[in-house]
Amino acid sequence: MGIETITRAEPRELAALDLPRVRDDFPILFQKVHGKPLVYLDNAATSQKPRAVLEALQHFYTADCSNIHRGVHLLSERATAAYEAAREKVREFINAGESREIVFVRGTTEAINLVAYTFGRQQLQPGDEILITAMEHHSNIVPWQILCETGAKLRVAPINDAGELLLDDFEKLLTGRVKLVCVAHVSNALGTVNPVRQIIRMSHSRGIPVLVDGAQAAPHMKVDVRDLDCDFYAFSGHKVYGPTGIGALYGKAALLEAMPPFHGGGDMIRSVTFEKTLYNSIPYKFEGGTPHIAGAIGLGAAIDYVSRIGMDRIAAHEHDLLTYGTQVLARISGLRLIGTARQKAGVISFILEGIHPHDAGTILDQEGIAVRTGHHCAQPVMERFSIPATTRASFALYNTREEIDALAAGIEKVKGIFA
Ligand code: 7TS
Asked: E strands within 171-258?
């Protein structure tokens, strides 16, 4: 027994977040909305920005503002160094092997479109199939539908009543015709965490590449693209406490190298004549035109911020909020949770009997509580559950149990008004 206690190390308890200190980093949280303290529970739409990100943006525009990759002057050198340092931070954040595998884009939507318009157009023939799931955001549906106008077909793997992917059905759809699998790591409407490692293993065993939409995963859990072995991974900076208008596409170097460019223009070329243009090496081949330099630097600052706190600690805190929130909301009569997967991230979607989500959201707003109502850009998910919309509370590292109590009280108020 003595030996066992020595050899079997207990997992070290993660120290809890210092919530008051964390909240202090987010100046926007300290305001009143309709005379009530702001309770911001719309983090799946966008998260708030810590002071470190605001300061990085301010510093760029007040000290280093310049274009990149071209000037010989000092400001341009500093701007270029900061932009490329941000790329390296993204690489480390998702554990990619090389920083040239990181392409800066506007966000997840642009990342997926980039793959559809380059890899998709190059690789897919009429009759080929793209396999997605029934819980995708529109930005992981519509680019593939546009691509399918050239003759390919979109196939959709179904989900169960809890909002979980039916893996057996998914596997049956993985036929020889499928040339690309595209799945959300985490569903924005249901909170379901998909078994992406298993999905990737199943697909790779048949030689099919996989794109992972990580928009709702990157802010909430440690992402390791090499461990997942995904071929493409997309996420948005603004959901990871960074600025809007910046995001990243990870692609395996060999795939990116073989792909044609996306946007033609400055910086993505090696040489141009009217007879022939030679393209730049990756990732620059995909970054035509002046990019969102300040945005990339701000995203780098956001990554530094969450990395200092620790993604594991953030995930543990949000898991606590999800567990507590689910318990508290499940006790409210007439409230039905939409999305009850066993593996969930910090998203709680629900409907209230006889009350339209839009009305619920409007009354909650009067209480200072910011939630999202609607179809969450996932209309097929609403159709799957035969509902027009949900009210959605989604958590971030700065949310508290008290805010969930405020949400529950707000919901009781909504019910009171409609009683
Ligand atoms: N994929 C998922 C799973 C998302 O949740 C979103 C945005 C996107 C892609 C698109 O990201 P963008 O940054 O390019 O717009 N989701 C949401 C949402 O749930 N509420 O507002 C935006």
From this structure: 178-184, 210-213, 232-236, 247-251
